[in-house]
Amino acid sequence: MKKKLALIMSVAAALCLCFAMAGCGNDSQPTNAGNGADAEAMTFTVGFDKAFPPYGYVGDDGEYTGFDLDLAAAVCEKNGWEFKAEPIDWDAKDALINQGDITCIWNGFTYEGREDKYAWAGPYMGNGQVVVVKADSDITKLADLADKAVITQADSSTIEALDSDEWKDLQASFKGGKVQTISDFNNAFMQLESGTVDAVACDLSIAAFQLAAKPDAYKQLDEQLSEEHFAIGFKKGEEGQALADQVAETLKALDADGTVKQICEKYADQGISYDNWCLK
Are 116 and 110 spatial neighbours (Cβ–Cβ below 8 Å)? Predict the structure, then answer.
């Protein structure tokens, strides 16, 4: 009788264990965002340059902030995704997105010249490539940059503009026969202010930010190197394009309800203008 009772208890314990394990297995199954209130939120990891104000930078409180990060956070809130801002080495952006370490590149990322390299959301913002010099500089036009030290960010759209057929002769006239490069635009403007270089070639948005911060220190040349647009880059392929399309539609909805304009106004004193918004 004791053996029979022990056998029954052993079987019952085994059945309880099996049910418990099955229950745990069901709870741990990942689900896609947007499939209901109980769905596990997708982590939306934005790769950005933390020294690219006003689109992405470290705020006075030590937290990551910026126009693009605020837009991304609003998109995530709308879709029920978990937002994560991931500062990256800009030179490593392609490797990071292809490896899946980041969901997208969203940080004043120029669309022109990269059309076939990514799945895109946008373009959403107008931009251009310009040159900034000291306010008291005798440089007033692009031709005056001959024999001058000009600097820009490594692997930036400015380099692509200067390497183009339209401006390659201009670049060849620079001191050293080529534009100098540096890791980020903040340091580029520090060199301009110190007199180490004569000019910074950069995005229109970066120039607007610097001029807003120090209107008496710098001036922007009237001639532009290029006119272009910012967009959000995802890994190329059907999955990446589907996510890009969802982000684009969410941005349109945020524009329609006034959120985009509100975020633009938040950064107006840093050179952001809703007039440059182009995703309708």
Answer: no
- Based on C-alpha coordinates, what's the Rg of the chain? 25
Residue 40's pLDDT band, with cuts at 50, 70 and 90, is low
CB distance 162 to 151 below 8 Å: no
**Strand partners for 47:** 86, 105
Side chain identity at 155, as an amino acid letter?
A: D
**Does residue 54 have a cis peptide bond before it, meaning omega lies within 30 degrees of 0?**
yes
Q: Contact at 8 Å (CB) between 158 and 225?
A: yes
Neighbours of 273 (CB within 10 A): 14
Mean pLDDT along residues 129-140:
97
Q: In what order do the strands lie in the sheet with 56-58?
A: 51-52, 56-58, 64-65
CA distance linking residue 47 with residue 104, whole number of Å: 6
- The residue among 169 and 29 whose pLDDT is bigger is 169
DSSP sequence for 140-159: -SGGGGTT--EEEETT-HHH
Q: In 3D, which of 186, 184, 209, 200 has the Cα closest to residue 273?
A: 209
Q: Quick check: 220 and 131 in contact, CB under 8 A?
A: yes
> Residue 183: phi, psi to the nearest 5?
-70, -35
Instruction: Specify the pTM.
Output: 0.72
Both tokens assigned to 116 = 């076939």
Q: Residue-wise over 214-238: b if at least 16 C-beta within 10 A, else e?
A: eeeebbbbeeebbebbbbbbbbbee
Q: Distance between CA atoms of 224 and 208, rounded to whole angstroms?
A: 13
